[in-house]
């Protein structure tokens, strides 16, 4: 009798595990591009394009094409910057009509900073924060710029501002904290 009860219990556990797996897979398939990867098509283009072109609607399009909206250009410039193609990112971001878009200023600053012009990067971050003081990405990058210049006191102030907005467990806080503690920028 004990053997039967134990095997029934084991079958119940396996059914529960199998049901959970089916549920997870169903959820993953119901939200394409979001499950497991942490982002959709806006985060990563499906394909790398040659210089002077950006990914739009399943193909590479000239970055100066009328088919690209400012939003498309901002998204492409951000992705180019995050992919380490800083000159390309700057070229795309500078074609955007709205020169006071905080996201555009942030990724222009990021690209210039990564190319070695830390002062220009910092000034662009400051302009972006004047427009959108809540942007924790901009605050993290500004803090990274301060770390690069050895201005750890100013970097720490940005860390405090990030903590006010998202706490100590968000990625931006942890990245800047690590840079401040190490005394060097990781981004």
Protein described:
Helices cover 63% and strands 4% of the residues. The protein is mostly helical. It folds into two domains: 39-97, no CATH class; 100-187, Serine Threonine Protein Phosphatase 5, Tetratricopeptide repeat, CATH 1.25.40. It has a two-stranded antiparallel ribbon with strand order 1-2. Helix 6 (136-148) packs antiparallel against helix 7 (152-166). The longest helix is centred in the first third of the chain and has 29 residues, at 2-30. The N and C termini lie far apart (63 Å).
Task: Provide the descriptors you would attach to this structure in a database record.
single chain; 187 residues; mainly alpha; Serine Threonine Protein Phosphatase 5, Tetratricopeptide repeat; 2 domains; 8 helices; 2 strands; globular; disordered N terminus
